[in-house]
Design goal:
Rossmann fold, globular, NAD, 16 helices, 5-stranded parallel sheet, 6-stranded parallel sheet, alpha/beta, single chain, about 425 residues
Length: about 425
C-alpha cells in the first residue's frame, strides 16, 4: 500500500471517486453475443456455453434436484449447519425490521392516501461459483425474498459447491440451476425451455455477469451493477492490526479490489502499512490488490478525511464511533474497533450485496425493499373532489392537457 498526503492527492482521489463500474467495453461484445444467442436459441445455447465455460457435462441436468440439495445438506459438517442457520436467522431478522408497511392516512377534506406493499412475483438470485464458493450469497439474496413474500425464487450458480447447495436446501429453494455467467443472466431474463424467466435478477458477479445484467436491464429488472469489492476505513486512533486485517480481508476477494485507509495520524498510517504487509504475506490475491489498488491517505484533520471518504463512496466503510453522523455515502458502515467488516459478509444481518463503483452515493445495499413494490393508493370523496378540482384543472390547463382537466370537470359537475 502507498502512503500519500491527502492534500497533495486531490487529483488521484477525484479519479478514484469517478471510477464507476469496471470497464465493460472489453467484454461487452462477447457478452452481447452470448445474451443474444441464449435469447434466440434457448437451452441449446445455454448448455453450449455452460459446457464450454463452466465444464458442465453433456448429460448433466441443468436443474439441481431436491434430492441433490438434500444430499449436500446431509453431507455438510454440523458446525457449518449451525453457523449457516444462525446467519440465516440474523439476516431474516434484519430483513423483517426493514420491511416497509402498508398504511392509510386521512389527508382531510375527504381525501385518503396510503400505500400497499406487494412482493415481486419472481426473482432470480445469482450466486458466484468461481474463485470462491459463496453460500453466504445464497442467504443474502434468498432470505430477503422470503421475508418479502416472493412466490418464486430461483438460484443460479456455476459449479455450485456442496455448501452452496446445502444453503439452498436450508432455505427451501425449489429451483436451482447449475449455470452461471452471462448465459445464466440471459436465461433468467428471457427464459429457455428449462428456465422460466423471472421478473428481477439480484446478486453479485464478475464483469461478464455485471455486463449481462446491464444489457438485459431494459427487459428484466436488476438490483444494481456491482463490480469488484471495495473497502475504506477512517480512523484517528484505531487498532492498526484490526484495520489492516479488514483491508486484507476485503482485498482477498479479487485482484481488482480497491481499499483505502484515511487517517490524520502518520504513525498510525505507518503501523497499518506494516501490519498489512505481515497479514497479506501469504495471500497472493490480497497482495496483488493491495499493491495496485491499496491506498493510505494522511489528512490534515478528520473533517478532510471524512470528506474524502464520502467522496470515495466505498462499498464497505469502517469509522470511529464519533464519526458515524458524518457519513453520507457508503454501502454499509461498520462502527468501532470490533465491528469487523467480515461480520457484514456473513453473520450480523445487513446484506453483503452492496453498491460499488461510487454507486453508494445514490443507494445502499440489497435489502428487502428490492423485492417489493410500494404501490400508492388514493381515495377521493365528493368533498375531496371539490377541494382538489380547482388545482388539477388549473394545472391541466397550464400544460395544455385538455382531457386531463375534462376528466375532473365532468366529475365536479356531477358531485
Amino acid at each position: 500500500m502507498r502512503i500519500l498526503r491527502l492534500e497533495k492527492s486531490s487529483g488521484l482521489l477525484a479519479k478514484l471517486a469517478a471510477r464507476g463500474m469496471a470497464d465493460a467495453s472489453r467484454v461487452e461484445p462477447v457478452v452481447r453475443k452470448i445474451v443474444v444467442d441464449v435469447r434466440k436459441n434457448g437451452d441449446a445455447a445455454l448448455r453450449r456455453y455452460a459446457s464450454k465455460l463452466d465444464g458442465l457435462g453433456k448429460t448433466a441436468a441443468l436443474r439441481v434436484s431436491t434430492e441433490e440439495l438434500k444430499s449436500a445438506w446431509d453431507a455438510t459438517r454440523s458446525e457449518f449447519k449451525q453457523a449457516i442457520r444462525a446467519a440465516a436467522k440474523n439476516i431474516e431478522r434484519f430483513a423483517r425490521w426493514q420491511m416497509p408497511k402498508s398504511w392509510t392516512r386521512d389527508a382531510g377534506d375527504g381525501i385518503e392516501l396510503g400505500q400497499i406493499i406487494r412482493p415481486i412475483e419472481s426473482v432470480g438470485c445469482y450466486v458466484p461459483g468461481g474463485r470462491y464458493p459463496l453460500p453466504s450469497t445464497v442467504l443474502m439474496t434468498v432470505v430477503p425474498a422470503r421475508v418479502a413474500g416472493v412466490e418464486r425464487v430461483v438460484v443460479v450458480s456455476p459449479n455450485p459447491a456442496r455448501e452452496t447447495l446445502a444453503a439452498a436446501y436450508l432455505l427451501g429453494v425449489g429451483e436451482f440451476y447449475r449455470i452461471g455467467g452471462a448465459q445464466a443472466v440471459a436465461a433468467l431474463a428471457y427464459g429457455t425451455e428449462s428456465v422460466e424467466r423471472v421478473a428481477k435478477i439480484v446478486g453479485p458477479g464478475n464483469i461478464f455477469v455485471t455486463t449481462a445484467k446491464k444489457l438485459v436491464a431494459f427487459d428484466c429488472a436488476i438490483d444494481m451493477l456491482a463490480g469488484p469489492t471495495e473497502a475504506a476505513i477512517v480512523s484517528e486512533r484505531g487498532n492498526a492490526r484490526f484495520i489492516a486485517a479488514d483491508l486484507v480481508a476485503q482485498a482477498e476477494h479479487d485482484p481488482e479490489t480497491m481499499v483505502a485507509f484515511f487517517t490524520t495520524s502518520p504513525s498510525l498510517a505507518d503501523a497499518v502499512k506494516k501490519q498489512v504487509a505481515l497479514l497479506a504475506a501469504k495471500n497472493t490475491i490480497a497482495r496483488k490488490a493491495l499493491a495496485t489498488r491499496g491506498y493510505i491517505f494522511v489528512a490534515q484533520d478528520i473533517a478532510q478525511a471524512m470528506e474524502a471518504a464520502n467522496q470515495f463512496a466505498s462499498e464497505h466503510l469502517t469509522v470511529d464511533e464519533d464519526l458515524l453522523e458524518t457519513v453520507s455515502s457508503a454501502g454499509s458502515v461498520f462502527v468501532g474497533d470490533y465491528s469487523a467488516q467480515s461480520f457484514g459478509d456473513y453473520a450480523s444481518g445487513p446484506n453483503h450485496v452492496l453498491p460499488t463503483g461510487g454507486l453508494a452515493r445514490v443507494r445502499g445495499g440489497l435489502s428487502v425493499l428490492d423485492y417489493v413494490k410500494i404501490i400508492t393508493v388514493q381515495k377521493i370523496s365528493r368533498k375531496g373532489l371539490r377541494a382538489l378540482a380547482p388545482i388539477a384543472e388549473t394545472l391541466a390547463a397550464a400544460e395544455g392537457l385538455v382531457a386531463h382537466g375534462q376528466s375532473v370537470a365532468i366529475r365536479r359537475a356531477n358531485a
